[in-house]
Amino acid sequence: MLSPYDELPIHQTPHPVSIVSNTDPSFDDGYYFGVFSPEAKVFVFQGMRINPNTDVVGGYVGINRDGKQRTVRFSRTWRELSKTEIGPYSIEVIEPFREIRLKLDENDSGISFDLRWYGSSPAFEEAHHWAVNRGRPTTDQTRYSQSGEPRGWIQIDGDRWEVEPGAWYASRDHSWGLYHERAPMAPDPKWLPPRNPGGIPRALRFWTIFGAGELSGFYGFHEDAKGRQVKMNDTFGTPFEGQLTIGWDDEVIDLVGGTRELEFVPGTRLLARATITLEDSEGGKWVQEIDPVSPPWVANTMGYDAGSWRDGGSLRTYHGPGVSLEWDEFDFSKQPFDHELYDGTVRKDLIGREYLSVITTTAPDGRSWTGAGQTELFLDGPYEPYGFTS
User: What whole-number distance in Å separates Cα of residue 288 and Cα of residue 174?
Assistant: First the structure.
């Protein structure tokens, strides 16, 4: 069970690094990266997750072009080659937090690229994610988020974009532990007592990573159905957190609170515009105007859920010997929409949750920056501030 990582003095248990102390099949470790341009209305999303307890590593790359979305997924067993590469797709850490190479060689999907992802500010370690159900941990995860700048090229079906900082922007996170239970690897609920997680459920998640030249930052806040930012027993249970930086760390602005004014496309939960007011530790107010430029991209094709792979499985499940590769394309330009997964499940009235936006930030002293960012907006169930009752 030795791997190249065992050469390093980084062990946390008496076992080789590839063996984790938690035996839950949902334990995983991996990356997400976003590379995007508001001018081109293109968002490239990609990631890789290692599931040591199922001995599987899965990955995905998707391109959303103004609502038309193509996604290619990859899988293989993990320990046969303990590297962050799956067939044509690879992630190479050149300098931790500073420079990462993202590469997808030519393959059947028609998508390929060679990108360098450069950190534009230090990574922000989020508050530990923790949730329980009947005393059993269902989320127990560390995550850090980071804004960045990309350089390189992207190609799909012969269309090619030269990627340069200033016109293109980047986001990412890295997380490990238990995220939350996902079929088909989650316990079958018919053999368990009824769920009783307790605590206050989350209704809204507003998570943003952005860049604008020398200014970059991250923040996220979570609210209950009444619009209150309170601690929750939830996958994303932190009321508020965030940080802004000018330069890598020339000016570090710790954020202690945030409020939101959201506008939606009439008759939907699609975000049309947002004004976010962020409060720093000295009481200063930073105001962001967020303007989505295209329909939000849809996470269902990334491979995390049961039925997102053609065999009915997910990133955590085995898809056969060697490297498995499959791809699909959907037109998500009109939302809400109905979407049938490969296991026959139909999800109705879906909207995307990942927005590409132009973001203008104004500092307390009047300085202003315009750039772009990724906003993840979850709006689940009733939410009183905007009259959503269902």
Answer: 25
Q: What is the pLDDT of residues 253-310, one digit of tens each?
A: 999 999 999 999 999 999 999 999 999 999 999 999 999 999 999 999 999 999 999 9
Whether the CB-CB separation of 163 and 115 falls below 8 Å is answered with yes
For residue 387, the SS3 value is coil
- The vertex-127 CA angle with 385 and 388, nearest 5°, equals 15
Asked whether the whole model's pTM tops 0.90, one would answer: yes
Report the 10 Å Cβ neighbour count for 264.
16
On the question of pLDDT at 370 being above 80, the answer is yes
Strand (E) or helix (H) holding 139? strand 136-156
> How far is the C-alpha of 329 from the C-alpha of 346, rounded, in Å?
17
Report the C-alpha gap between 84 and 44 in whole angstroms: 19
Q: CA-to-CA distance for 34 and 147, rounded, in angstroms?
A: 9
Characterize 124-136 residue by residue with b for buried, 16 or more Cβ atoms within 10 angstroms of its Cβ, and e for exposed: bebeebbbebeee
In this structure, are residues 369 and 360 in contact, taking their beta carbons and an 8 Å threshold? yes
| Nearest to 130, CA basis, from 259, 23, 272, 231 | 231
Q: What is the dihedral of CA 42, 45, 46, 47, to 10 degrees?
A: 160
- Work out the burial of residue 117: count CB atoms within 10 Å of its CB; fewer than 13 is exposed, 13-18 middle, 19 or more buried: buried
